[in-house]
Amino acid sequence: MLTMIQDDKEEDPALLALMAWATRKMSVRALMGIQLQTISALQAIEEDEGTSRPRPVISGRKIDLEYLVDMTIEECEWAFRFTQHELQRVVDMLEISDPFRTQDGHRFTAIEAFALLCARFRMPEDQFSLSTNYARSQTAISQDFNELSCWNDKTWGHVNIMLL
User: Fold this and answer.
1) What value does the CA radius of gyration of the chain take, rounded to a whole number of Å?
2) Sequence-separated (6 or more) residues with CB below 8 Å from residue 18
3) Span 21-73, pLDDT tens digits
4) Could you give the CA distance from residue 57 to residue 98 in angstroms, rounded to a whole number?
């Protein structure tokens, strides 16, 4: 650290300029050192975790006929507000294409697309909980919800029925 002592009561402008320059230089070097340490720490964390961003663990099981058969009637009604047979009947009645594809290429069976729509209406929670329960990304669930809702409105809106 640069320290200068002046006996005079009067401040020397050249000395003040020199001290300001030295302080600024030391501050810039110190800040650069802190930045490099921060970057190094973040890189170490990234290497430990193996990912650059935190992501939810997508677990659970995709919705298919086997999944629905494994559920009790009460569990199915709780999750989707329909029984297994009612889900299949509504999918057949609505003539949802199988597979149902979103614009970004996410692909769902017709029963999975409709069941995810029902689950989304059923649960006031965010899509994170759906992604952890039904093994789909939040993006895929969001696109399924939006595009199947729009398709249903466009295809069956003239009938003016309320399914849910």
Assistant:
1) 30
2) 4
3) 666 656 656 656 666 666 666 666 666 555 555 555 666 788 888 888 888 88
4) 27
